[in-house]
Design brief:
The chain contains four helices and five strands, in the order ββββααβαα. With 101 residues, it is an alpha+beta fold. The chain has two domains: 3-59; 63-100, no CATH class. The strands form two sheets. The protein has a three-stranded antiparallel beta sheet with strand order 4-1-5. A hairpin with a 5-residue loop joins β2 and β3 (21-22). α3 runs parallel beside α4 (88-100). The longest helix has 17 residues, at 61-77. The chain is elongated and about 45 Å long.
């Protein structure tokens, strides 16, 4: 199974939603499948965007980021308004709903 390494670049701890706390300056190795379930959480996404968390490994992590940017671009082209911290799954649902019309 594919693994990811999540590094907390801040001095304080960070609690993964529904999971463990990563102490400041420390790393955690997790299954990519488990990571994929929480990576789009608004707080997790914000910490990654700000550089507070670094994620390495896993064959879907980098692809997912590119997919998310493509979804945002597509949503904008379709005239869909969405919150900046929307989950990737919800964004896909909004696009699908718009295309179904």
């Amino acid at each position: 199974m594919s693994k990811v390494t999540i590094t907390n670049n801040r001095p304080g701890g960070f609690g993964i939603p529904g999971g463990p706390v990563i102490d400041g300056g420390k790393s955690l190795t997790a299954d990519a499948k488990d990571w994929n379930e929480v990576k789009d959480h608004p707080v997790v996404a914000a910490w990654i965007d700000a550089g507070h968390l670094t994620v390495e490994g896993g064959d879907t992590v980098d692809d997912a980021s590119d997919d998310r940017e493509e979804l945002k671009k597509h949503a904008t082209e379709l005239g869909i308004d969405y919150a900046k911290n929307i989950s990737t799954e919800k964004l896909k649902e909004l696009i699908d709903a718009k295309l179904a019309l």
